[in-house]
Amino acid sequence: TWEIGLKSTWFERRVSFNLAYFDTKSENAQLLEFFPQATLQAISTADEVEMSGFEAEVQWRPVDGLDLIASYGYLDSEVTRFASQPTFVGNRRPSTSPFTAMFAAQYATALGAAGWDFVARADYTRQGRTVWDWADTPGASRSPFDLVNARVAVRNESWELAVWGKNLGDTEYNAEHIVLLPFAGALYRAAPRQYGAELSYRF
Fold first, then answer.
1. In whole angstroms, how far apart are CA 158 and each of 58, 97, 151, 155?
2. Which of 29, 55, 110, 134 is the most buried (most CB within 10 A)?
3. pLDDT digit of tens for each residue in the chain (203 aa)?
């Protein structure tokens, strides 16, 4: 495994840009799978998997208190050796997606009352197609999906009161998919739209 990266700031630290590239080779990569012939779950192992990709992030502060953030991650994964199932060579590593993109905006300002601050953040994430087994079984992958989250809080050095919303678009997608047969699987749905509030104290 090796990695190379760059971190930089520009325009009086109002813009930052970070970039990292990595390349890794994994031997005996494991996956928990269901084997219908024996009606049991067991670990299957690919002899070798290669992965490479990059992550890039840019952050811009156009005015004091406002941060705009964008990031993109790309992953190329490939099974390069699989002695027990040579037809799987060339497939992606399960539970990985080729890209993840994120855009966020955060605003923070002092309230002028005994050290209290107001902080609001919203973010949007898009994740690419995900495969769930070494065979890349047709119909068993997860399609790309989008999520929007938001959070608003008031806080000081000790206390924070926040309200939040997750998956505001109420996107339906699978958090996990266990392939049981070529034509059947067990789906675990991700959480739907959620709202909440929390009060925390830092010692």
1. 31, 39, 18, 7
2. 134
3. 899 999 999 999 999 999 999 999 988 888 766 655 555 666 778 899 999 999 999 999 999 999 999 999 999 999 999 988 899 999 999 889 999 999 999 999 999 767 899 999 999 999 999 988 888 887 778 999 999 999 999 999 899 999 999 999 999 998 887 776 666 667 788 999 999 999 999 98
- Say which amino acid occupies 159: W
Q: Which of 144, 145, 191 is nearest to 165 (CA)?
A: 191
Looking at residue 130, the DSSP 8-state letter turns out to be B
For residue 15, the Cα-to-chain-centroid distance in whole angstroms is 24
Q: Strand locations in the chain, DSSP E?
A: 2-10, 15-35, 40-60, 66-81, 99-110, 117-127, 145-155, 159-166, 174-181, 184-189, 194-201
Question: What's at 19, amino acid-wise?
Answer: L
Please state the pTM of the whole predicted model.
0.85
Per the CB < 8 A criterion, the answer to whether 179 and 140 are in contact is: yes
Question: What is the secondary structure of 138-163 as a DSSP string?
Answer: TT-SBPPEEEEEEEEEEE-SSEEEEE
C-alpha atoms less than 13 angstroms from C-alpha of 125 in its C-beta half-sphere: 11
Contact 28, 70 (CB under 8 A): no
